[in-house]
Amino acid sequence: MKTRLLLLCASCFWILPAQAQLGLALAPMRVEIKIAPGGQYTDTVRLSNDSPAPVRVRAETLDFYIDNTLTPQFGASYEQEAKLSCREWLQINPREFDMEATATTRVRYTLRVPSGISEGEYHCGAGFVTLPPVSESATPMGVRMAVRAVTALYVIIGNPSSRPLLKDLSLKALPNGTWEASALFENQGLRSFRIKGFLEVLDADDRPIEQAEYAPVPVLPQREQVFPFPLKTSLSPGTYLLHTQADVGLPAVLEGSVRVVVNGTQ
């Protein structure tokens, strides 16, 4: 399935005719690759120019992580990801190319895994970003932003496993006067996991107030991940119950509950 990802970079823009808007479509958006140490893997991704104008594209090899708002953050290098990054193994060819309006192309990528690498899951991104045109004869009339599309790569060495833990459930008031429940998970293992399940807020009589599903994002290896749940309901002073059920791929579902007190000073 073709998925569109438009990440607008506010720090890099060029003045262009307003009608010349850009869009990239990339498939697949996520790839899992099981490979042995010292092995090599080559495949392609399908990149489409959804804009009615030609565009120049540059390929990028990226690190990424999931932040506390559950947003993937892609960058040229993140020091905290170094131990589990596959970025330095990744090559993309060609690195820079032109695409005609509404055109589609296949772009080749290759992963060369070092010999002697430890068992585990390693992650990186194959990114594609639009560049400013070489020349532009039209009179400037608007702003065009840079667009980035990324395929997330998960390289699995050996037979690593995840070790999910539910560490905490909490409730806090936000500066805008609303409330946010959250669940904190830790992955002590060497392979990521995803959560299927829900977190709910109940009143003092265990009557449900709100319930929300977990976002389908990975908890990467060797880290903690917060899952925030902004509430629509305004909470009056009183006692509330936070309850969650989380299927993380273990034989048993992780389940937890905690009672919290909201007072008038929060």
Characterise the protein shown here.
The protein is 0% helix and 57% strand. It has 266 residues and is an all-beta fold. It folds into two domains: 3-157, Immunoglobulins (Immunoglobulin-like), CATH 2.60.40.10; 164-262, Intracellular proteinase inhibitor BsuPI (Immunoglobulin-like). The strands form four sheets. Strands 2, 4, 6, 7, 9, 11 and 12 form a seven-stranded mixed β-sheet that branches. Strands 1-3-5-10-8 form a five-stranded antiparallel β-sheet, with no helix packed on it. It has a four-stranded antiparallel β-sheet with strand order 16-15-18-19, with no helix packed on it. It starts with a strand and ends with a strand. 26% of the residues are buried.
- How many E-type strands? 19
Percent of residues in beta strands? over 45%
Helix content: under 10%
Average predicted local confidence, pLDDT: 89
CATH topology of the largest domain: Immunoglobulin-like
What class, by secondary structure content? mainly beta
Number of helices: 0
Count of domains: 2
**CATH homologous superfamily of the largest domain - what is it?**
Immunoglobulins
* CATH architecture type of the largest domain: Sandwich
Q: What's the gist of this structure?
A:
This protein has 266 residues and is an all-beta fold. The protein is built from no helices and 19 strands.
